[in-house]
Design goal:
By secondary structure, this protein is an all-beta fold. It has strands at 14-21, 28-30, 39-43, 46-47, 53-54, 60-63, 72-79, 111-118, 121-129, 134-139, 144-148, 153-157, 160-161, 184-185, 194-195, 198-202, 206-209, 216-228, 231-243, 250-253, 266-278, 283-289, 294-300, 308-310, 316-329. Strands 16, 17, 18, 19, 20, 21, 22, 23, 24 and 25 form a 10-stranded antiparallel beta sheet that branches. Strands 8-9-10-11-12-13 form a 6-stranded antiparallel beta sheet, with no helix packed on it. Strands 1-7-3-4 form a 4-stranded antiparallel beta sheet, with no helix packed on it.
């Protein structure tokens, strides 16, 4: 005989027993009910194997071989252990190897699947929307969150999708680098608000006369550019020690991006500061044309009939030096 020292333990499942006295060759016994697969059957105190009986409909137990007169059939029906609406105090650890240690399954409707509280107040939740297609993480009342869908992250605020109300970072809590393969919409959602590129770099300007650059020698030959969307800003510094033997109209070639084809003719001018080597001129200016990757140089004169004419090899001396700054449009 044994007993319990201290409090009697609370069972983790319940059971029901029922016994029958068999008639000769009796096979079927009507019970008060059981859960299939949660029942043990005994005949004269001996537990029967699963092959010796059938218990599948929740009410009847049917023997494979009929009982003898006055045999005692007894069954024990168990109620499966279930945790429903339970509150656990303390640390609860759930561990599994190679599989999800915890599964939370909400049925029927969308909404919260797990809810997080601090001192009894909801501070966040994880749930499903769009019939379980999307998942969201939400803060408590008046807090932000995010919804994850097939192709987008959506801002979430106060239990619902939000628009134009959530910031990404703060003045003192900033993200670092932002990597995008596409563009960004700034100040609106239309095509005019779409910025698809920002780029900084260098380029190598080349002076040509009539399309040639034979014998040209540089002491300075540098170029930089900044591209914001479809607008390119270039700057270059050129200084020659020998203008070479090529003749004809002057160009600076090698632009980092080809000018757009949408603007017919000249795309306007740039600023050119000449430091030396400009023969008897008031100054020069530059321009580019549609679908071009070169700058045309123009000389400023005092003539009232032709204030701007093409700059050519005769207008430059061997020590020709110029700085150029210009903006133009590109399709790149």
């Amino acid at each position: 005989m044994s007993g319990y020292i201290g409090a009697t333990p609370v069972p983790q499942a319940t059971q029901h027993r029922e016994a029958f006295t068999a008639t000769a060759s009796q096979t079927s016994f009507a019970t008060v009910g059981y859960t299939p697969q949660f029942v043990d059957v005994y005949l004269n105190g001996v537990k029967l194997a699963a092959a010796d009986y059938t218990a599948t409909n929740g009410s009847d137990i049917v023997l494979t071989t009929g009982a003898a007169l006055n045999d005692i059939l007894e069954y024990v029906a168990y109620t499966p252990f279930e945790v429903a609406d339970q509150t656990f105090t303390g640390t609860t650890t759930v561990t599994d190897s190679g599989a999800a240690p915890l599964v939370a399954n909400r049925t029927t409707s969308d909404g919260d699947i797990t809810v997080f509280q601090k001192d009894g107040t909801v501070v966040g939740s994880i749930g499903a929307t769009q019939s379980g297609v999307n998942i969201y993480y939400a803060g408590g009342a008046g807090k932000s969150g995010v919804e994850y869908s097939n192709t987008a992250w959506r801002p979430w605020y106060d239990g619902a999708r939000a628009d134009n109300s959530i910031d990404l970072g703060t003045t003192v809590n900033r993200f670092k680098d932002f990597y995008l393969s596409g563009g960004v919409y700034l100040g609106g959602t239309g095509a005019a608000n779409y910025l698809d590129d920002y780029e900084e770099g260098t380029w190598t300007p080349v002076v040509e006369f009539g399309g040639g650059s034979v014998g040209i020698v540089y002491s300075i030959q540098v170029g930089k550019y900044t591209k914001v969307g479809n607008v390119v800003t270039i700057s270059t510094s050129l200084s020659l020690t020998n203008k070479g033997s090529s003749t004809g109209n002057a160009y600076i070639t090698g632009l980092p991006f080809t000018a757009t084809a949408d603007l017919a003719g000249s795309q306007g001018g740039g600023v050119a500061a000449v430091w030396s080597g400009c023969n008897s001129l008031l100054g020069i200016t530059v321009s580019t044309t549609a679908s071009s990757s070169e700058l045309s140089l123009w000389r400023i004169t005092s003539s009232t009939s032709s204030f701007v004419l093409r700059f050519d090899d005769a207008d430059a001396s061997n020590d020709f030096s110029v700085n150029v700054t210009m903006q133009y449009y590109t399709d790149a």
